[in-house]
Amino acid sequence: MEPSRLSSEVKARAGALGFDLCNVAPAAAFSEAGNYLTWLSRNMHGTMDYMERNRDSRLDIRNWHPGARSVVLLATNYFKKAPAADPASQGRIASYALTKDYHKTIRKRLKTLAAWMRAEHGCEARPFVDTSPLLERLYARYAGIGWVGKNTMVISPKLGSRFFLSGLTTDLE
Length: 173
Hints:
Elements: H1 3-16, E1 21-26, H2 34-41, H3 55-59, E2 70-77, H4 102-121, E3 125-128, H5 136-143, E4 147-148, E5 154-155, E6 163-170
Antiparallel strand pairs: 1-2, 2-6, 3-6, 4-5
């Protein structure tokens, strides 16, 4: 199937599953991934020792999923206007913490999308949320989801910066 038609089908299916944005990036090693090594060498990760593990996967997503040719990036908006509360009687809570555990809910939708892709297109598809050893913000940028701001968050022209990134790798182009 023609790549642009396939992308359109995947985007439509992702939208039907409740993802707010969907775009595709090539599964490649981007030169900017080297910034991760500099970041580690400067000890910018502090006590987050897990950031030192799986370096090869973080530098090139194909080390995490051999045979991957494309990365489907998805954004899920978590900003929901909460009812106004008296700030003197309640603390402030981050808006993403007001939802169910996004890892479970998004992973379930990702698995559904991956199963559909396997059934419809006979491909391999491997889902990921932010617990996987990948530089998802880098791929989100190459997919056109948005850009990385000074706050280190991906900023989307459509969603701002209040969304969860997730995705899947596939052997389809």
